[in-house]
Structures are given as structure tokens and as C-alpha cells.
What does this fold into?
Amino acid sequence: MRRAIAGAFVIPGLLLMLAVSGCQSKSEKLVFQANDTAKKALKSSPEDRVKMFDEARGELHQAVQLDPKNLDAWKLLAQLDEVTGHMDDAGHDYMQASALDPTDQKLMQKARMYRAIQQIVDNANNALGQIKSGDTAGGMASLKDALLATHSTALRDKVTVVLAQALPLVAAQGDDQVKNKQYADAVKTYDQAVRGYILLAEAQNKHSLDPASDAVLHSANEAANSAGTPDATFRLLNDVLTFDPDNKTANLELAQVYLRRSPPDYDTAADLEERGGAPDAEVKKLRDEAKKQKRHHRG
It folds into this structure.
């Protein structure tokens, strides 16, 4: 993943630290060239800077191809990749540099950090595999753990991409369970999907759920009703409305839960349907039923 180049980027003085000799290898010369190119880039316009940093990266890639043990090439390449947003490449570069100089604690710390990042990404991908194999609860739990372990926007973005891929798969598993009349299991699976949509919205700093969650909420409610447990989605729907109070689908589906109770709670259902944008005639009908119910109780 690539991000904008940081304006406060400082190229370390590798050129000054390298011993100049008349018998430099081609790889060493390329490191000097790359360092000079990067320094000149700092004095250039933002547009030219991007091109010059890419040019320096190209020179360093040539350097490490010619001499995979060129420590300075790996170190400068790691820093350039990091600052230009080539995070996967930066992780690889720091690990190569650290392997060449295990005594450099800064390199070691960077390498460890990127190993930890890679582990989180691997865990997220493994969680997707779990979900595909049918272990919905385990996979979703692993994805939640991966998100909680993220400490940067770039890493969080990677995990949320995997989460977004997983949610339709979870919902599809719920659909399959409904087809097989495994309604109670379907409710649990849909619950996992909806909570995943809440998790995704939180990770993306959004205050409303992805519209794709609407169909899942309805399916969960229908599965609960078919299972003979219409209250099974009560907590889920309330949790959705706690996160997203204006969610029309959650309001309408929760209204159905109240209507399926014995006796039906017409008053609360009317309030929920009104918030959910139901037609005025439907809301009025429910309020009329509520009045009849109250008169009946008084009588």
C-alpha cells in the first residue's frame, strides 16, 4: 500500500558515511547515486520529488541485485520505501538489512516491527480461510483480534480489506443454513455478519453501517421468526441502533420483533416504524391498534 510522501522526510547522510575509494563496485556507486538523487529530490517540487525518489529506488534495486550483501543499499532502500509508502517492500528491506548487521539495534527494531505487521496481516488472511472453511465464529474472532492489534492507519486498512471480503461470505453461509432449515444456526451466523459490519464501520471511522448489512438484518429477523424465537434478534438490533440510531432497517426490523410478541407492543412498534420511515398510514394503523389494546385492557 502506498501513501503520500511525508514532507519532513530527511535522507540520512549515507554518502558521508561511506568510504570513498577508487575501486568502488558498481553496486556501491549506485548507492552514492541514489543518495544524491534523494537529496536533490528534497529541493525539488513535490511532483518532481516523487519522480526522483522513484529514480533513487530504482538505482537501489539495481544495487541490491548486483550485491545482495550491500548493507547501505538495503538501509537506504528501506527508508525510501518506508517514506514513499511502499510498506511491504520496506518490511522486506529492513529484514534484509538487519540480517546483514544483527548488531544494529535500530534496524533490529524496525525488522521486528515489520515482522509483527506481517504476522497481523497473515492472521487476517488466515481468518478469511477459516470463514471459507465454515468456521465463522473462529474466523470473525481472529479478524477482530487482528484489528485490535493494529497501530497504524495503513495496517488497519489492510485488515479492513480482508474483513470487507469476509462479511458477504458469512452472510452467504447464513443463507445456506436457512435453505437447510437450520434457522437457529442461521441467526447466529447472521449475528456474526452484522457485528462484523459494525466492526468494519468502527475501523473506518464511520457512524453508519454499510448498506449491504440491511439485507442481513432482515434475513436474521426472518430466520429468528422461522426458528420460533422472534426475540432472538432483539439484542442484535438494539446494538445496531446504539451504534447507528438512524438505521432505518434496524428500526423497522425491531418493530417487527415487538409486533411478534404476545401480546404485540403496538406503541413501541409504531415509534420504531416512524423512525424507520414507514408510511404514515402504516404508523397510524399501529397507533390505532395500540389505542384499541389499551381500551381492551381498561375494560
